Amino acid sequence: MHVGIIMDGNGRWAKRRHLPRSAGHRRGAQAVDAVVTAAAQRRIDTLTLYAFSAANWQRPQTEVETLMALFRRYLLSQTPRCVEQSIRVNVIGRRDRLNSELLAAIEASEAATAHGSGMQLRIAVDYSAQHSLMSMCAAASAPTDRHDFLARLAQIDHSPPVCEVDLLIRTGGEKRLSDFLLWECAYAELYFLDCMWPDFDESAFDAALKEFNRRERRFGALPHEHTSEAEHA
């Protein structure tokens, strides 16, 4: 199972508490720890977290610098834990605009966890699905089928091949994809909730999984109860 999460609401969480936005981002990093642990315990195959979009470069420089420092600190502190839990870490997105310290931390984390046989944790940093798709279209040779396309898209995003997204979760009350895994989410079940990301915890993650399991995934086909009727139409 592949779960994608748009982690939205750190800044608003902080603003409601009259705190600087950086406090919201730091609290959001704690939520990441809890959710990664919960996902691994529930044997999720792939967890993709939307940490920083290509559009986020437009934010104030101080906020961007805080986020980049948090990403680096997270990788440095959590990589040993991922090794212990056999979690494989991959950072997807562009790398040419990242500072050398963060890039070194990314490469070190990916190398240290490369043989992880458990969950694959993908963190999207400077990521844009549109950019990835355009890069794919500019490739010299065309993909042969959907699976080949997905595999080549993963290469562009510096990731091993993954399956398409089964469940997409977005916190913060907004109901849009925001340029996140557009191809991979073609048939994903979408789950939006109002809580801000720093308040998202293990119980909220379980509620999302429970809702997913209640849904009937048809991938464009007719519901089961109408199949026989359609066959005789």
Keywords:
single chain; 233 residues; alpha/beta; Undecaprenyl pyrophosphate synthetase; six-stranded parallel sheet; 8 helices; 15% strand
CATH class: Alpha Beta
**How many distinct helices?**
8
Q: Main beta sheet: strand number and arrangement?
A: 6 strands, parallel
Terminal CA distance reads 35 Å
Fold and architecture overview:
- The protein is an alpha/beta fold.
- The protein has a single domain, classed as 3-Layer(aba) Sandwich (Undecaprenyl pyrophosphate synthetase).
- α3 packs parallel to α4.
Concise summary:
The chain is of the alpha/beta class and 233 residues long.
What layout of secondary structure does this protein have?
Blueprint: E1 2-6, H1 10-16, H2 21-41, E2 46-53, H3 61-84, E3 88-92, H4 100-112, E4 120-127, H5 129-137, H6 146-156, E5 167-170, E6 189-192, H7 202-214, H8 224-231
Parallel strand pairs: 1-2, 1-5, 2-4, 3-4, 5-6
Helix pairs in contact: 1-2, 2-3, 3-4, 5-6
